[in-house]
Amino acid sequence: MSSFYEWEPEGPSVKTEIPGPKAKEAIAKLDKVFDTRSLNMLTDFTKSNGNYIADPDGNVLLDVYAQIASIPIGYNNPALHKAAQGDDFINGLINRPALGNFPPHDWAEVLETGILKVAPKGLNQVFTAMAGSDANETAYKAAFMYRRQQERGGPNVEFTEAEMESAMNNEVPKGRKELSILSFRTAFHGRLFGSLSTTRSKPIHKLDIPAFDWPQATFPHLKYPLEAHAEENAAAEKKSLEEVEHLILNYRVPPCAVIVEPIQSEGGDNHASPAFFRGLRELTRKHNVLLIVDEVQTGVGATGKFWAHEHWDLPHPPDMVTFSKKAQTAGYYFGNPELRPNKPYRQFNTWMGDPSRALLFRAIVGEIERLDLVNHTAKVGDYLYGKLEALAKKYPGQFDNLRGKGMGTFIAFDNPRRDEFLKRAKAFGVNIGGSGVSAVRLRPMLIFEQKHADILLEALEGIVTTWDKDLGKGGKWPL
Amino acid sequence: MSSFYEWEPEGPSVKTEIPGPKAKEAIAKLDKVFDTRSLNMLTDFTKSNGNYIADPDGNVLLDVYAQIASIPIGYNNPALHKAAQGDDFINGLINRPALGNFPPHDWAEVLETGILKVAPKGLNQVFTAMAGSDANETAYKAAFMYRRQQERGGPNVEFTEAEMESAMNNEVPKGRKELSILSFRTAFHGRLFGSLSTTRSKPIHKLDIPAFDWPQATFPHLKYPLEAHAEENAAAEKKSLEEVEHLILNYRVPPCAVIVEPIQSEGGDNHASPAFFRGLRELTRKHNVLLIVDEVQTGVGATGKFWAHEHWDLPHPPDMVTFSKKAQTAGYYFGNPELRPNKPYRQFNTWMGDPSRALLFRAIVGEIERLDLVNHTAKVGDYLYGKLEALAKKYPGQFDNLRGKGMGTFIAFDNPRRDEFLKRAKAFGVNIGGSGVSAVRLRPMLIFEQKHADILLEALEGIVTTWDKDLGKGGKWPL
């Protein structure tokens, strides 16, 4: 099978330990002005191509982390290079509009041929944003305004003096309850103050940062392999839905919306069944609570559908779907016109997104369609998953809780020495990320092919069969 | 005096009412998918040049609003056009890094020759962000973590189990007080949940959105002309500082930081004296409260200094300075190394800014330096202010509370029929914005010259001498 893009290297090439001498020098320089403690790999993007990421020491790794799941169709993709040279693109970049006040004359067309061309079924409008966090937070704002509008008696009821005064004092009017957003334990929805209040992934994300008194329900903890735990898993999902309903009805700060990831990504690649999500949709509709699906990490093809929630076969679409990462732009989709607040300037900010990034997404969508990359990813994912199942059998305890079957390349497994696993992966020519406490998460690009899967599989086998080899000392690095 | 850029039109040209027929058609189309109720003017950016903004009906207006104060050096600036075609620029665009994990090998150099080249005195580090709201919110996060670290006994003291558990439940550990950010009445610091909690500009920004119980102090309400009210104004500033101190010592949720705009911009162009800000710096230092200066709107030259707080002659720099808008990128500067949290991944997100936008800022800085635009703006501002003073005398009640003397082109005045004033300005060939309840705010670009000031002044005089003329009906539009 030939590559989508012929400019890619044949395979990884590890020449020095990582970071090598040149990277170390650059990191020391950078650290003086920019915190480098979370640095994974100093990158030479000019030498990175397709599925391969390069560093200044000449190391080239197969990249199945892809800038935390946000590179869609490869480094230095020629189609994006061409798009970036377009007059419309440069125009959007150097004349950045305040989109709510001064939209470009062709903004409708840009949206319709890009962001809205791939809108989830049933959702035909968009509010554009800058990144996943503010996509979620603006969706929350829409949810709060929608619910209060209902309480008030509709969009035409004017705000009272008491409401306006209390808002200026950061209070709700006397006699009215605060409202909340319900999220799930181990969820990740961003790190600004509102989104972080719904994020429940790790203490390090939340420590010392004030948060709202918002409720969290337990996400079902599925056991693997799924076939062997069908009953238990169904019970866990039922229990989770019951908890959601209990919190909707009883939490001291009643939720006006539930936000959920199709696959909890940062929190450890936690899956639930389509039936669970259909139940959640039913439940939220029953109680007049909005359902926001956070597709920041799952969206744009990696699960073998353009949007992961297409796997659920919902009878009614989510109320809002948020996106970012591989879209290279961000925002939320919605369908109900009442999710537009009743007055202008309630949902507003200076830039409200970025037209040049909307054009980039359009070019990405063009390549996804031209190369049929969503179906491609479904197929490559099936191939990869099958091979990983075999590896898991061959090396018990090394590829635990393999998950993501039928979900494209959105695959993960647990390894008891996960952090070391990820570090050693580089010596085997592969850049991989983790999620949660013990998951190795595979998050390749949409141009990841069977031949890349084979390279990855060989590296994974290498990692788990050489635990005793010293990588760091005595010149044994690279292996 | 010749233009900086020869591609500019000679002057405004108003051919139809605004919106004209073509704009109306495009707006109707856009409104189906994107809320247009806050639309000011549908813009043809391909035909906008320098200080002039164009629309699809062939109207060309002198733009002293500049995308809500965020276009620095003119539409379709050739220097930015050239920068956008650079290999480094395209590379940053199409290979967007997760900057905290995989910074580009030349990121230190990009920062040092751009964002950090113009760092405020005393602040030599930066955390990069996407827009003003998250620049402020990440600064707040740094402030909270800093203060808790002090309470804990320093960066080496580990988190307790109780702290980690309570954080996951959106609580502070038992026996510890919540902390807050103190802001000023009529301030604007953004519209996400944390930043909106410090924003106190208008009810429409805040209604129905949950907010933290954070304190607000009264911003001194200066009376104009300043010379005639020196004593009163000094008293108002003293009172404001006393209120700040009282809130620091007594508010039920103690502030760990104070955030302030050098000139309250969205809130109505409210100024205070350098002495007030020096007092605020002294007070915050005395009580171990951080001072965050929000230069999102005031920064990057418009006040005749690169940063507006340079006007204050502070003995100690602010702890953090946030920026966005005319920088075309965003973030916060800081100096104290302890403002880096004690562990990696505490201040982190996927993109953490945008390298291509950092390169754009570098190109902007290059043009500002080449053309000495900060000093230029100081001079043009003085010229404009002098002429406005004369207009104010000539037309009593039309240019009330003229303010911004010596602050470059960052000038505003009140008009009793402000909204109508702004609307009529378009008929006179000028695009102007408002702020607060009654302010007309001038926010021209840094390439605004004396000749543009003359065109603006003629238009302003036209507006206030033709109130009785009908613009909207009977074909009298344009005048």
From TrEMBL, chains A, B:
Example GO BP: gamma-aminobutyric acid catabolic process
Catalytic activity: 4-aminobutanoate + 2-oxoglutarate = succinate semialdehyde + L-glutamate
InterPro entries, sorted: 4NH2But_aminotransferase_euk (IPR004631), Aminotrans_3 (IPR005814), Aminotrans_3_PPA_site (IPR049704), PyrdxlP-dep_Trfase (IPR015424), PyrdxlP-dep_Trfase_major (IPR015421), PyrdxlP-dep_Trfase_small (IPR015422)
SUPFAM superfamilies named in the record: PLP-dependent transferases (SSF53383)
Organism classification: Eukaryota, Fungi, Dikarya, Ascomycota, Pezizomycotina
Keyword Transferase appears in the UniProt entry: yes
Gene Ontology molecular-function annotations: 4-aminobutyrate:2-oxoglutarate transaminase activity; pyridoxal phosphate binding
Keywords, in A-Z order: Aminotransferase, Pyridoxal phosphate, Transferase
Classification via PROSITE patterns: AA_TRANSFER_CLASS_3 (PS00600)
GO terms under cellular component: cytosol; mitochondrion
Keyword S-adenosyl-L-methionine set for record: no
Source organism of this protein record: Coniochaeta ligniaria NRRL 30616
Protein name, entry field: 4-aminobutyrate aminotransferase
Family: Belongs to the class-III pyridoxal-phosphate-dependent aminotransferase family.
Cofactor: pyridoxal 5'-phosphate
Stored NCBIfam families: GABAtrns_euk
Enzyme Commission code: 2.6.1.19
Residues annotated as transmembrane: none
